[in-house]
Specification:
Elements lengths: L1 H11 L14 E3 L9 E7 L10 E11 L5 H15 L4 E2 L5 E7 L4 E5 L5 E12 L7
Parallel strand pairs: 1-2
Antiparallel strand pairs: 2-3, 3-7, 4-5, 5-7, 6-7
Length: 137
Amino acid sequence: MLSRGLAQYLHNAGFVVFKESGLGATVVLEYLPPNPSLVTLLRTYGGSQPDAWLGYDIIFVQVLCRGENQDPRPVYTRIQQLYNALQGLQTTLPDGTGLINCVAIQQPYSLGLDENIRHMYVFNLRCEVRNQTTLRE
């Protein structure tokens, strides 16, 4: 799963705390729980139509950061750090996923406040991921 590989990469780089159990983690995968307040979500969605012959798929990833309080500065700093770490990334992720290219669709922007008056910022990525098969190079 691409979100897990990206979480492991960001954990190894010191940006987030990723734990498979979720306990004590600062990054969650695919679903944004009500707690903890200060959290980063990595959620995969959609993508482009896959090419029948090329050995990669295009997957979109949403990166969302939620803050602890009404001050937007800490959560904005966090989302900007993640944007800088992922924009243009080309690597093999810790789980073995071949990330050919990772490009932001837009710069981080505010989603406003959630129901508990916590600031949220988001950006989306277009990721080309290696997926070779017997029919695809």
